[in-house]
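To: structure subgroup
Subject: Chain for Friday's discussion

All,

I'm putting the inputs and outputs inline so they're searchable in the archive.
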Amino acid sequence: MADNSTEKVHCLIIGSGPAGYTAAIYAARANMKPVLYQGIQPGGQLTITTEVENYPGYPTGIQGPEMMVDFEKQANRMGADIRFGLATKVDFSKQPYQVWIDEEKLIEADAVIIATGASAKWLGLESEQRLNGYGVSACAVCDGFFFKGKEVAIVGAGDTAAEEALYLSKLCTTVHMLVRKGQMRASKIMQDRVLSTPNIKMYFNSETDEVLGENKVEALRIKNNQTNETQTIPVSAFFVAIGHQPNSDIFKEWIDLDEAGYIKTIPGTSKTNVEGVFAAGDVQDKIYRQAVTAAGSGCMAALDAERYLSAKGLA
């Protein structure tokens, strides 16, 4: 049954990764009575990560999904109202701001924190999805360490792919780098670094045909798109570095985005171009994209929201 009711809330948080949950913890402690909607992927990108070893406070590491359960429990304990539901439409033309959940329920909010994250772009292979978390990864900085001393492959042609290949080259014996065209898109300096690194082996005009392996990545079958010849490379991991897509579509009518769709924030703050609307985490961060930086920006957003509500006499 459709829920056509309207609900008024003080502080609405959209998204449930490290940024959203941290914002909820801070907002709840400040008595802002935050309501958080978890979105399409409760816990965000960390729920498709296995071992997380680089988040402070977990000396022996932790599984990504388990860590997000911890974040959620902490936000709950502080009094945040955490709900299932996806924001499908917004109207930021006047206050209180309007956000529709699942196209049915209307929330009116004095302050909104956008923490909808970004989604890794994938090649679209069945084997890539099946082995995701078992050697297939979209984050070399997160998962490269687990393949120390092994041979790995990476696909991508931009600066991020180049950076990740260089990062992997310090850990892995050989990095096989696949570029779909005859040259990279990366900046000249990054291309020079990659090409001059002895253990990065380049494959131009090459595409991924299949990721091979039953329960973990064992090899990669690649195809030269000029000759149609295929070859199989034995690797222990396959990193996809073809970019991320910020989950910002529903906000584009109201919020300033950059050319790639990331929300623009005023430097040093979480403030957007709309007063009382804040952004945190990967939806506004295309540079660092780490759990710890997302959590930090979630804290900033809650503090900025609290100051905004106080100044407006709404706190």
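Points worth raising on Friday:
The longest strand covers residues 105-114.
The two ends are 34 Å apart (CA to CA).

D.
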